[in-house]
Amino acid sequence: QVQLQESGPGLVKPSQTLSLTCTVSGDSITNNGYYWNWIRQSPGKGLEWMGVMTFGGITYYAPALKNRTSISRDTSKNQFTLQLSSVTPEDTGVYFCTSGPNLATSLYWGQGTQVTVSS
């Protein structure tokens, strides 16, 4: 059973860079065939896919967030990290890390972490 756990600051100031880490257990993030996503949900909005890192380390980002988003990984710790720059209050929401066997499927979800952007 794959388990994911998000961690990071709950409060970020506008214009700063948000950094969240997803710690994975039960499987390796380099496992052949799996994809590792970041998804968020802002107040009053649906789920928004932000980006993904493949098992091979290739990244893809949502077009609307591409210029502000970066996903990286630390294979020694079995973690992958989201960085979102130049945040605004509109980036407030619950951030989830997920994984699945393809780009369209998230089988496993972290519990989510609340991030508030406020001065």
Q: What does it look like?
A:
There is one protein chain. A hairpin with a 5-residue loop joins β4 (35-41) and β5. This protein has 119 residues and is an all-beta fold. Strands 2, 4, 5, 6, 9, 10 and 11 form a 7-stranded mixed sheet that branches. The chain has strands at 3-7, 11-12, 18-25, 35-41, 47-54, 59-61, 69-74, 79-84, 93-100, 108-109, 113-117.
Task: Furnish the topology, listing elements before pairings.
Blueprint: E1 3-7, E2 11-12, E3 18-25, E4 35-41, E5 47-54, E6 59-61, E7 69-74, E8 79-84, E9 93-100, E10 108-109, E11 113-117
Parallel strand pairs: 2-11
Antiparallel strand pairs: 1-3, 3-8, 4-5, 4-9, 5-6, 7-8, 9-10, 9-11
Query: Largest sheet, described in full?
Result: 7 strands, mixed
- The number of distinct helices, counting runs of at least 4 residues, comes to 0
Helix/strand structural class: mainly beta
> Between the first and last Cα atoms, what is the distance in angstroms?
39 Å
Shape: globular
Percentage beta strand: over 45%
Helix content: under 10%
The total of beta strands comes to 11
Average pLDDT for all residues: 95
What would the keywords be for this entry?
119 residues; mainly beta; 7-stranded mixed beta sheet; 4-stranded antiparallel beta sheet; 50% strand
Summed up:
This protein is an all-beta fold and 119 residues long. The chain contains no helices and eleven strands.
